[in-house]
Write a structure and sequence with these properties.
Shape: elongated
Distance between the termini: 14 Å
Structural class: alpha+beta
Order of helices and strands: HHHHHHEEEEEEEEEEE
């Protein structure tokens, strides 16, 4: 059983190695030039690496939360959730067929000058997961656990159509059972 939940940051880590390998230097130059033009009167001193460290903090998004949000939109799963609410003692285990989940996020960094926000850098984070061998556990109208299988994941982080990071992972095995609140 896993006590910790996998985050987007763990799937797409921003480390010294990935800073060098995954960043598109021409795109980072475009990013810096455009930001410098947008923030008039403020000298831009942050490096690509400073920005990547901040981005790493923004990627602390729990992967199971992304999956849950998607699954709860499924008509079939909604029906089972309703059934389980009507029979609170009964437990349901649903094997999910291979499926894909896409998730879009808008993390941002606020640029501060003399403790005042002067600009908001809003990124586009696009994630895609293909899941195989997952099972969800339902009781009392809630999904209380996930038995995970194999996950293929890819993602891009961009700002104003400038692709800053792109990652595609080999199939990964997520922690066995994830218990939810």
């Amino acid at each position: 059983m896993s006590e910790t939940m996998t985050t987007v940051n763990e799937l797409f880590p921003v480390t010294d190695e990935t800073k060098q390998k995954d960043s598109h230097d021409d795109n980072w130059k475009k990013f810096k030039e455009k930001i410098t033009k947008e923030i008039k009167g403020v000298k831009w001193t942050a490096s690509k690496f400073d920005i990547l460290e901040k981005i790493a903090q923004l990627l602390d998004i729990k992967i199971p939360s992304i999956f849950l949000s998607s699954w709860k939109k499924s008509d079939e799963i909604k029906k089972i959730l309703e059934e389980s609410a009507a029979s609170p003692e009964e437990k349901f285990e649903i094997n999910l067929s291979e499926h894909s989940i896409t998730s879009d996020h808008k993390p941002y960094i606020e640029v501060m000058f003399k403790n005042m926000p002067v600009y908001k850098i809003e990124f586009d984070l696009n994630l895609s997961f293909t899941l195989e061998g997952f099972m969800i556990k339902i009781q009392n109208g809630n999904i209380y656990g996930i038995d995970s299988g194999v996950c293929n994941a890819k993602g891009t982080l961009s700002w104003e159509k400038i692709k800053l990071l792109e990652k595609k992972l080999e199939p990964i095995k997520l922690p066995g059972t994830i218990l939810l609140n």
